[in-house]
Design brief:
By secondary structure, the protein is of the alpha+beta class. It has one domain. It contains 5 helices and 4 strands. About 20% of the residues are buried.
Amino acid sequence: MSYHGWAFSAWTVDWKFIKSVAPKEAKAFEDACNEESSMYEIAFSLDIEDEIDTNIEHLLTDLSNRFREVTGGLDLSLGFIGEDETDSEKCGAVWFVGGVEEKTPAGKKYEKDILYHSWIEYG
């Protein structure tokens, strides 16, 4: 059996920044995560395309919509990087941001808070 590595990269933000941009929606999502499931578990479920709780799904959509509205068009999505299949320093639940690749006005405005992240996954 062969062993391969795949290169990945993404723009990411941390949870602290998300809470500063959309505090009400972030708190609602965080509270629901604490009651029903961890953010790690939700990100993992999304990664393997497993169903997530409808309430969590709605709160995540609300958070993403508010983030897009406040940042002037940046997309936010919850993703997952598996610890056992990568050399990435950032593993588990990861917040990916879209819309900054071409340095849009929104991307320029928040460029100090948005980090470019790359990693390799093996399997």
